[in-house]
Amino acid sequence: MDLPAEPAGPAGPGPDAVLLDMDGTLVDTERLWWQAAAAVARSLGRRLGPADVPHVHGRTVEDVAAYLVLAEPAGPPIPGETAGRPILDDVARRPAPDDTAGQALGAVAGRLTDAFADRVAADVTLMPGARELLAGLAAAAIPTALVTASPRRVVDLVLPRLDHPFDLVITNEDTARGKPYPDPYLEAARRLGATPARCVAVEDSPAGIAAARSAGCHVLVAGPAEGLPSLDHVRAASTGLRRSSRCR
């Protein structure tokens, strides 16, 4: 008796999964996030400048709210971070805010989310190469996850513009700690049933790059200068992953 044919796999080599950041990687929204944070900061009597970029770029609304209200950095050290004060792992050491401080942080986080969502709703531009990369990944049947520090409310505004069948979406609400901690990438790999060391992450911010590398993923850096990698670039990066479970 003939045995049933095995399901066809993706054409050509590829990683177990590709994990993609959203803001600044697939869509040009980092500038909108900065505008939102700067507007909220001004309302609190603060003016953001270049030294504040590491504490805003790629960070969650909660981290930025804490930075604006408490003027304290959040998250683990980011290799290569030179602008502003060193980012110290003081989240665990910092005492939990009392009710009054907690309410203030929650209010500022809500204002940040509102300001960001309003800007995204009015202006979402895909990064050059985003549509081509997503289409190539879909055609190759390579599993994909969107892994973002943005809240679900903002992600829901962006997803229709991306027009891609992500296998999984990880937002700010899905992990207790956001980037630059590895938690979002570890959670994405866990839910996909993939080994992080056999995943390729595409990131643009120092916080996101640090998170993906800490999780054990191979990282391809995107941005205005680098652009987005092509599908061939992703496949080439994954060749080493298939020879070794260790991530470079």
Q: How does this model look, in words?
A:
By secondary structure, the protein is an alpha/beta fold. It has 2 domains: 17-29 and 125-243, 3-Layer(aba) Sandwich (Rossmann fold); 31-122. 41% of the residues lie in helices and 8% in strands. The chain has 8 helices and 5 strands, in the order βααααβαβαβαβα. A 5-stranded parallel sheet has the order 3-2-1-4-5. Helix 1 packs across helix 3, helix 2 (61-70) packs across helix 3 (99-122) and helix 3 runs parallel beside helix 5 (152-162). The longest helix has 24 residues, at 99-122. It is globular and about 55 Å long. The model is unreliable at 1-11, 81-95 and 244-248 (pLDDT under 50).
CATH class of the largest domain: Alpha Beta
Low-confidence stretches: 1-11, 81-95, 244-248
- Given the C-alpha coordinates, what overall shape results? globular
CATH architect. name of the largest domain: 3-Layer(aba) Sandwich
Topology diagram in text:
Layout: E1 17-20, H1 30-43, H2 61-70, H3 99-122, H4 130-139, E2 144-147, H5 152-162, E3 168-170, H6 183-192, E4 199-203, H7 206-215, E5 218-221, H8 231-243
Helix pairs in contact: 1-3, 2-3, 3-5
Summarize the structure.
41% of the residues lie in helices and 8% in strands. By secondary structure, it is of the alpha/beta class. The chain has a five-stranded parallel β-sheet with strand order 3-2-1-4-5.
Key traits:
248 residues, alpha/beta, Rossmann fold, 2 domains, 5-stranded parallel beta sheet, 8 helices, 5 strands, 41% helix, 8% strand, disordered N terminus, disordered C terminus
